Amino acid sequence: MCHHLTQGNDIGNFFVSISANLISDVIFLLLFFLLAWLIYYLTKRRKLFKFFSIQDTKRLNVYLSRLFICPGGAIGITGQPASCQGISIVYKEAMAANKFRDNFNYLSPSFSDKPGLLSKILLSDVQVQTIASVANTTEIDYTTSLITLGSPTYNLVSMEAQNNSQSQVQFANNGSTINITGLQPMNNLTYGFIQRVHDQNTNKNVFYTAGLTELGTVGAANFLATNWSLLYKKYNWDKNFIIVLNFNQTNINNWSIVVEKTW
After folding, report:
1. Domain coverage including residue 165
2. 238 and 251, same structural domain?
3. Relative to the CA of 195, which of 13, 40, 160, 231 has its CA 20 to 30 Å away?
4. d(Cα 158, Cα 61) in Å, to the nearest integer?
5. DSSP labels for 126-175?
6. Cβ-count burial 81-95 (b if 16+ within 10 Å, e if not)
């Protein structure tokens, strides 16, 4: 009787030992992958800060096109002119700007549109502010890096960006052509560009994203927000560059590079 009990205890201890080893191995693997992910994430985050050059300020301003709706100039949902008037912004530009906030403020950009607890997981050490284009150049905040969306027709910050002495891009012919120094004029309505000018004195970056149509502007802004790491590999954090992309009319995530230039 005692012999059988001892045998049973030995078998039980054997399975307990195996289970304990398996559990410890699983915990080790989970901790290993968690540590690896944390190292990767923190390393990528440092690159993100460097690329946009906000290591010191922890702030980024995104300026949008500013539209003034004249009385009767708005169209309601019925398709008829409405009496609405005042300052407005471009909806798709605002949606693209939100992706910059996601990059900086969320542990994972994909969590930002999730319901419940995941949507509350924030990294609050960076302030991303979305602003309708200012009415006066004195209101532009150059104390931190900035991103400006849209052409100078609707965005004064974009006008200042292309008037910068280091800028290589200009809108011409009443906004119907994009001119880049040393290249043929471009008038393709599916093109959008991203220009970054780095100020060596202040260590701040000015990103200028625009196109001849909403497609080009929104596509360029979306590309900058979602493919910044690709640009970081090419241009690091302090090199001036401009990249022109051609976007699919039905899917801005389908793009091809037209031309790249550094100086």
Report:
1. 57-262
2. yes
3. 40
4. 13
5. -EEEEEEPPSSGGG---SS-EEEES-TTT-HHHHHHHHSTT--EEEETTT
6. eeeeeeeebbebbbe
First-residue to last-residue Cα distance in the chain: 89
Residues 130 and 165 in one domain: yes
Bridge-based pairing of strands 204-211 and 146-149 is parallel
For the entire predicted model, the pTM comes to: 0.78
Q: Are 247 and 257 in contact (CB under 8 A)?
A: no
Tell whether 46 and 62 lie within a shared domain.
no
pLDDT of residue 5: 53
141, 130 contact by CB (below 8 A)? no
Q: What's 122's DSSP letter?
A: B
- Are 115 and 21 part of one and the same domain? no
Token look-up 């905040």 returns: 141
Q: Are 242 and 194 in contact (CB under 8 A)?
A: yes
Q: Does the pLDDT of residue 118 top 70, yes or no?
A: no
- Read off the pLDDT of residues 181-224 as tens digits, 9 standing for 90 and up: 999 999 999 999 999 999 999 999 999 999 999 999 999 999 99
Count of structural domains, the chain: 2
